[in-house]
Design brief:
single chain; about 325 residues; mainly alpha; MetI-like fold; 2 domains
Length: about 325
């Protein structure tokens, strides 16, 4: 456990150093010139470099940045003067966490049901439909699907009985208005989940079919165990190892900002939108905080995946 924790800290440290060097050590990169504006005089550039500590060595600049981010918490945006970075990330994080978690529940349940039915009816029409659904899910751009959903629910059919309940685009905090929180996220959840449900169904179906060919399945059947129990208790447990590994990668990336396009389409100001705006403006403090936030959840997701896989497959312990 201690070794894993140290390894995770080193990974996050390496990521932060890499991001810092990209912005500050890349040839031609001069944050002071961007902050001072076009046509700034030499005196103005020197004043900006001194104000932000850009006239010091790179290790000192990195240390000051990390100290203000993690110790004092007073790191401010270089674009929106006076805006503190840590509160901005903390305000955006619940939006992305709510979106990713709700969509994950939907696509896991849908993928589980689809994969089980397809594996139980291998070669049938349902099996072929799962393959087609997976291809459609991979192929449809989320921004196009989201725009279609908005066109129907916010404009064309908004006054109909089916979509009259749909609120305006945006995010309602869970603790302030739980019902409004759920209503505002249900369509983004479904939109995001549709892109993954078919893929997870296909992965689970392939893993189940491969598990059916193993000796322990034939042994279980020879003992007279029912087919439903063979599927759910023996084959499914081993097939879920692959699904859990895939889920860890996906959910870590989404919580880290992979929901950007969904957030933009549905007017949700989450981590993805915050990072995108910061990259557009080359706002290093915000980018650094968002990257460290994302790396934390990716590392955490990988640690959880390892623990779950060990529980499902004793051979990995």
């Amino acid at each position: 456990m201690i070794t894993r924790l140290l390894r995770s800290v080193l990974v996050m440290l390496g990521i932060s150093i890499l991001v810092f060097l990209i912005f500050f050590a890349t040839p031609g990169a001069d944050p002071a010139a961007r902050l001072a504006g076009r046509g700034a005089s030499a005196e103005a550039l020197a004043a900006v470099r001194h104000e932000y500590g850009l006239d010091r060595s790179l290790p000192v600049q990195y240390g000051l940045l990390m100290h203000r981010l993690f110790i004092t918490g007073d790191l401010t945006s270089q674009v929106n003067r006076g805006q503190r970075v840590v509160p901005a990330v903390l305000r955006a994080a619940p939006v992305t966490l709510s979106l990713a978690a709700g969509a994950a529940v939907i696509w896991l349940l849908a993928g589980l049901a689809i994969g089980l039915l397809a594996a139980a009816r291998e070669g049938s029409g349902w099996d072929r439909a799962v393959t087609a659904l997976g291809l459609v899910g991979i192929s449809i751009p989320v921004f196009w699907l989201g725009e279609v959903v908005n066109l129907l629910t916010q404009s064309r059919l908004h006054d109909s009985w089916a979509f009259r309940w749909v609120p305006p685009l945006g995010y309602q905090p869970l603790l302030q208005d739980p019902a409004g929180w759920a209503r505002g996220l249900v369509l983004p959840w479904i939109t995001l989940a549709l892109l993954y449900a078919g893929v997870y169904g296909r992965v689970l179906r392939s893993s189940l079919i491969e598990a059916y060919r193993q000796d322990y399945i034939r042994t279980a059947r020879a003992k007279g165990i029912s087919e439903a129990r063979v599927l759910l208790r023996h084959a499914l447990r081993n097939a879920l190892v692959v699904v859990v590994a895939l889920f860890g990668l996906d959910i870590g990336a989404l919580i880290g900002g992979g929901t950007l396009l969904t957030e933009v389409v549905f007017g949700l100001r989450g981590i993805g939108k915050l990072t995108y705006d910061a990259l557009q403006n080359l706002d290093l403090p915000v980018v650094m905080a968002a990257v460290l936030y994302a790396s934390f959840f990716v590392v955490l997701a990988n640690a959880v995946v390892d623990a779950v896989q060990a529980a499902l497959d004793p051979r990995q312990r």
